[in-house]
Every structure is written in C-alpha cells, then in structure tokens.
Amino acid sequence: MRILNKVLESVAEHARECYPEECCGILLAHGLEPMVTCSLRAENEEILSPSERYILGHRAHLKAVELEVSGQYRIAGYYHSHPGGRARPSVLDLEQAVPGVSYLITAFGGKKAWHSLWRLNGDDLVSEPLEVREKDGPQKD
Length: 141
Fold this sequence. Notes:
With 141 residues, this protein is α/β, with parallel strands linked by helices. 23% of the residues lie in helices and 38% in strands. The chain has a single domain, classed as Cytidine Deaminase, domain 2, CATH 3.40.140. It contains 3 helices and 8 strands; from the N terminus they run βαββαβαββββ. It has an 8-stranded mixed β-sheet with strand order 7-6-5-4-2-3-1-8. Strand 2 (24-29) and strand 3 form a beta hairpin. 28% of the residues are buried.
C-alpha cells in the first residue's frame, strides 16, 4: 500500500491524543488509485477495555461508506493504535480481521511513532509493504 506521509502523521497525532486508549479510523483513497490520501477518525466505542482493544465507531464507518458510494473515495483499510505497545497485531486483532482489508497499526514511544501494515492471509495476519510518499503522483528516484 502507498500512503501519504501526512496521513501517517495524522494517524500518529490521533494516537497521541487518545493515549492511553487505542484510537481507530479508516484509510481512504481516491477511486481506484492505490494511494491512501486521507484518513477518517472514528470513535473507539469499546467500553470495557479501550486501552487494549477498539470497536470502530459506526458514524465514521457510515461516513466512509457514503464517500465510497458517492465515488469520492474508497475504503483502503483501517487503522488503530497500540498505546505503549508494539506495531504488531495482537490476538484480538487477528480475531477481528477480515480478508481483503489492510490494517495499519501505530505504536509510539515519546514523540516517535512506528507504523506497520497487515493483511489476513489464511489464518494469520501477514506483514504488507508500506510505501510512504511525500506527495501524490510519480516520485523521482
């Protein structure tokens, strides 16, 4: 997955604001383009253990579906944070994962954020390449 750096920065900021609870949201791309150009923050509707798990807020999900139906964006994946943890999927992440969807996990310590991308493959979440771009369009090497 290709993603704009500003989107990763926005996700990291969301994670910092929600600390010590997990944040969550949706990654959006324009049409069929493979580049994630924005994110949509969601409420973590988990009541019992919001520092250890998340339930994606239904309002944000409905908004993302509306954007997809209108042709403005498509849902490219989902994100959540692991406060004080590692940017690796937990057992709960694996239990909630569905095929065909990418999951961005953000962990941070101090001001530094770590991001990793995962996708369900069979019975396991496997790491996917995460290509960070400064801007949309062709990159000069």
